[in-house]
Amino acid sequence: MKRFIRRAIIGTAQLLVLPLALWWWITGKKAQVFGSCFDLIAWLPGTTGSILRVALLKWMARRCDEQVRVEMGTLFSDPRVSLGYHVYIGAYCILGWAEIEDYVLIASRVSIPSGQHVHHFDRTDIPIALQGGTKTPVRIGRGSWIGEGAIIMADVGEECVIGAGAVVTKPIPPWSIAVGVPARVIRSRKHSGEETGCQTNERKT
What CATH number did the domain enclosing 81 receive? Predict the structure, then answer.
């Protein structure tokens, strides 16, 4: 019953945000317009704001389940974003091309850019701003929890915990707890008493 009511509320909200979706479609579904549409509703507070953001995502994103909550101040920059069932996104996050699976929790001020090579910088004869870039999807596995202020530039496996302020530059295996800059795995959630091979080797030396 609750899901039916939620679906009805989201459907009504979709009618309210339809003009923004039409603007995006008419202008050629450009990523810049996609981002601008969310700028307009990003600062609406509370449950009402979250519902309107989810409604707009259902029109414009690759996927967005009804059971998603997006808090105030969160911005989206790529329409290929995908949000699974029961995803929570905290306040003031920035998301690019992200594939977020079911039951993921994302704390506030988390950044998930579209991979690590959004801007190329190999050449020295022209400014970085003119060198272009390559966008790639970043996947957050089912049931993972991303701590506040983390920056995620590589895939995170299912049921992981990423510590606050961590910077993920390499893929994180499933069921891992990773912290630091750059992020490193400190242990597995499935074997809480076991430490990583790296730590074990360090103690032996």
Answer: 2.160.10.10
Q: Establish whether the linkage from the previous residue to 182 is cis, with ω within 30° of 0.
A: yes
Our count of domains for the chain comes to 1
CA atoms within 13 A on the CB side of 196: 15
Tell me how far apart the alpha carbons of residues 116 and 125 are, in angstroms, rounded to a whole number: 22
pLDDT score for 200: 38
Give residue 33's domain range: 2-204
Rounded Cα distance, 171 and 151, in Å: 13
pLDDT of residue 73: 95
pLDDT value for 205: 35
Q: pTM value?
A: 0.85
C-alpha to C-alpha distance for 153 and 170, rounded to whole angstroms: 8
pLDDT of residue 134: 81
Which residues are CB-contacts of 59 (< 8 A; sequence separation ≥ 6)? Answer: 14, 17, 18, 20, 21, 24
- DSSP, collapsed to helix, strand or coil, labels residue 63 as strand
Q: Which residues of the chain have pLDDT under 70?
A: 192-205
Is the CB of residue 119 less than 8 Å from the CB of residue 134?
Answer: no
